[in-house]
Design goal:
single chain; alpha/beta; TIM Barrel; 16% strand
Length: 285
């Protein structure tokens, strides 16, 4: 299986999968999940700590994956770290052999959790990207995130261009289950020639239930979960299988949208559903 670097360089439709982390995850459970995902994709994405609970750090998990021969894309957010710790974590990633970073501002904690947690935001996303890409010896492939929406005729991707100017080589959208909306968004990025600056990855997931779909649409900033998707899951006799089917169908559609370089499949609990969605889509064939 090729690495994330190689897949993007070869202009293949790149596939990654994002681990689902729980507070008490052990090395064994992390590896078991990662191996299931890695069998179907080019790299495994390692999310940063949730704003609502503490989990194993993305730096430590990346080290575990590297030891197992799995290519990690390590997430790093500005929310919980000052600039010294951000620098230290980037340098730590380089020392371990991590070659891909997804850099972001970080999701705010829910309203009921916020009073208990102090956020930092000493650096913004652009400052973190500039620092990571300034390490010329590291040869880091850096990415950041974007939100899919229907842009107006005069819209220009100015924020994305700033990220590209700072050194970003790939952009990953938040979860988007609306292929028509994605077509509009990507048509503007193609027209503005942004895809010549950076590769664009689209986030999808096999949704396990209508309740989870609704929760993501309301609570995950930038996530697009249409009502028809929630309805289909609610009416399904087997919601988990319906979630796999929806993800597989969208994966095939996304692969045919001009400008899309690949997809990241977010694991929402059971890694077997991610593997099933990839296999059902036929995208690897």
């Amino acid at each position: 299986m090729q690495t994330f670097h190689q897949a993007l360089r070869n202009k293949d439709f790149t596939l990654t999968a994002e681990l689902a982390l729980v507070a008490n995850a052990s090395r064994e459970t992390i590896l078991a999940q990662a191996r299931t995902l890695a069998a179907e994709v080019d790299a495994v994405q390692v999310p940063d700590c949730s704003p609502s609970y503490t989990s194993v750090s993305s730096l430590a998990i990346s080290a575990i994956l590297l030891q197992a021969g799995i290519d990690p894309i390590m997430h790093l957010s500005c929310r919980d770290r000052n600039r010294l710790v951000l620098r230290a974590d980037v340098l730590g990633a380089v020392a371990l052999g991590v070659s891909s970073l997804l850099l972001m501002r970080g999701q705010e904690a829910a309203a009921d959790v916020r009073p208990k947690i102090k956020t930092v935001y000493d650096w913004g996303t652009l400052q973190l990207i500039r620092y990571a890409t300034s390490l010329e010896h590291a040869n880091l492939l850096t990415g950041s995130i974007a939100t899919v929406f229907k842009p107006g005729r005069d819209w220009e991707p100015l924020r994305l261009v700033k990220k590209s100017d700072a050194g970003t080589k790939f952009i990953q959208t938040q979860l988007c289950f609306d292929a028509d909306l994605l077509r509009h968004y990507m048509a503007r990025l193609v027209a503005e020639k942004f895809i010549q600056r950076a590769s664009v990855m689209v986030a999808l997931a096999p949704l396990p239930s209508a309740e989870m779909a609704q929760w993501l649409g309301k609570n995950l900033r930038g996530a697009v979960v249409p009502a028809k998707v929630v309805k289909r899951l609610r009416q399904a006799s087997d919601p988990e299988q319906a979630g796999i089917d929806i993800c597989a169908e969208l994966l095939r559609e996304v692969a045919g949208i001009p400008g899309v370089a690949g997809a990241n499949l977010v694991c929402l609990g059971n890694p077997d559903t991610v593997a099933a969605a990839v296999q059902r889509s036929g995208i690897r064939n």
